[in-house]
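We now fix the convention by which a protein and its fold are recorded. The integers have meaning only within a learned vocabulary of local backbone shapes. The record below shows the convention in full.
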Amino acid sequence: MRMKIHLPNESIYAILAFLFSPAAFAQVDGFNKGAGNVDVVASFSYEKGSAYYLAEGTAAIKRSRTAATLFAAGGITDDLDLQLSIPFISNSTEAGFQDASAFLKWLPVKTALGKGKLTFGAALGYSLPLTDYQTEGVNAIGQHATSVIPMGVVQYTWDAGCFVSLVGGEVFASDPTPDALIGTLRFGHFNATHYWELYVQGQQADGGKNYRGTGELAPMSFTQLGVDFVKGGGKYYKPIGTRFGVVGEASYVLSGRNVDQAVLVAGSFIVKFGR
């Protein structure tokens, strides 16, 4: 028998994992919007790299970029959400729309357990490039890959508003970009006046070439690079009245391969529609 536990304003939190990550899989968490609820978000971020992680060591490559992204998440049913995003990326020489993504998230199991509830479910994502953007050199915007992204979701939410969640799966990317295992671990708290979370995200590519690689690992194109990273960060959400809210985030790439050693700061404005 499935039991549901109501926590105040829970529907808003299904949008927050959606924000600011360079990886599409960060969009998935263990909250549902609820049928008829829709959030629309405008977000802006700035990322500053201090070095570039090679397969071994780092290179003295310092890059920065800004992003403006439009997000939306809506509840089709109480257990099924649809999430969409369209990012616009800009760096010192290039600017353009990058990879749009869509996720269906289904969380059918919400079972009372101890002093809270345990949530299980799955998600299926699809990502595709919107334009013929730059993929080569230090000012590349992305890898121009089309991806299918199946994921699993488990979350425990205490009645007092604390939660811990684990999301993981695989990115099946179009050739020549390698596939990758992905995951996000979150811990946070929410109530009627705020939401915060701390997270660790990781990606491990299934092989791929290396920037400055030699022999078999030398890339013909940056689209062949295998991207690994471990990233830590946090977010804070504050509602403004009943229909609006703001979010701030900061994160840092702790380690990786073929990725910037970068700090990200971001902010967004949320408009809520529905119940």
